[in-house]
Design brief:
The chain is built from eleven helices and five strands; from the N terminus they run ααααααααβααββαββ. Helices cover 68% and strands 5% of the residues. It starts with 5 loop residues before the first helix and ends with a strand. By secondary structure, it is mainly α. The chain is elongated. It comes from Flavobacterium amnicola. This is J domain-containing protein. Keywords: Membrane, Transmembrane, Transmembrane helix.
């Protein structure tokens, strides 16, 4: 007899438990008790013989279920390991992107141009001259200052108007350039911009398809400081990406390193960059089938 379900086995052998182990132990006990070795190698009657073969068939079915369950568990574990392995690079990529976003946002929020002090100084001088122009009596009451400054003269009016004009233009120019610099810094988070940086790095520095992470990091940082990011056979490279404004530095070495790690991580994910097993302080990589 061939069994197709545990319910058939439970019914034939009058077993109440749903546990495969309990069912198998109960059936195995029947098989042992009906084994022909207990009766000199022969079955006492046909009923005992039939019961023995039923028990044997039931155990074969139960062992098959157990084997299949083990196989399913192994397959599920293999699939799980595969999913975890695939998630590790993705999680690292997401972590690097979030880290870069945080650092760039912080750099933008704390950005201060080196022209900040001149801008404030010019504004203060303009405010003082404006006050004297509007209230000339303040100078007349001071015999020392009135000897050098005449707020009612046409020359003073020209100076005041010039300061007012230059101060306004200076504020507009610095504000506009600061906003442009901040927006262009945000471009460093874009994949296509990072790809261009890496292509620029390869063209300028790679000779044997090998490079260190530190080399890429310093290239990104120095390119920012030299206003050369994005410049690749294009005269408008400075207009593509610039992180300097009147000598202001809004990119840090940390941001440069984060960008380098992002580029390398994406390259490893796409199997165009491979880490070499070389004992150095800085990780060394090699290009593989990069086009």
């Amino acid at each position: 007899m061939t069994y197709n379900s545990t319910s058939e086995i439970k019914k034939d052998f009058q077993i109440d438990s749903d546990s495969l182990e309990v069912i198998r132990d109960s059936v195995n006990a029947v098989r042992i008790n009906t084994h022909p070795d207990k009766t000199n190698g022969e079955f006492p009657d046909e009923n005992i013989k039939e019961l023995y073969y039923k028990a044997n068939s039931a155990i074969e079915y139960l062992d098959g279920i157990k084997s299949n369950q083990s196989l399913i568990v192994v397959e599920k574990m293999t699939d799980l390991m595969k999913v975890v392995t695939e998630l590790i690079p993705a999680n690292r990529q997401n972590s690097l992107e979030q880290n870069l976003d945080s650092k760039i946002s912080f750099a933008i929020s704390t950005f201060r141009s080196k022209m900040f002090l001149p801008k404030i100084s010019l504004t203060a001088i303009t405010a003082v001259v404006t006050f004297l122009f509007l209230f000339p009596g303040q100078i007349k009451d001071n015999p020392t200052l009135s000897h050098f400054i005449n707020p009612t003269s046409s020359f003073f009016a020209i100076v005041w108007f010039s300061l007012l004009l230059y101060s306004g233009l200076f504020w507009m120019m610095t504000f506009n350039n600061e906003e442009k610099s901040k927006k262009k810094l945000m471009l460093l988070k874009v994949d296509s911009v990072q790809n261009r940086i890496f292509e620029n790095f390869m063209e300028r520095h790679l000779t044997d398809d090998k490079f260190k992470k530190d080399e890429l990091t310093h290239f990104i940082y120095e390119s920012c400081m030299g206003n050369r990011l994005g410049e690749l056979h294009r005269s408008e490279g400075l207009n593509l990406i610039t992180t300097r404004l009147f000598g202001s530095e809004i990119i840090t070495m940390e941001i440069a390193q984060n960008i380098a790690e992002l580029i390398i991580s994406r390259g490893e994910k796409n199997k165009v960059i491979e880490k070499l097993s070389i004992n150095t302080l800085s990780d060394t990589y090699e290009l593989k089938n990069y086009r």
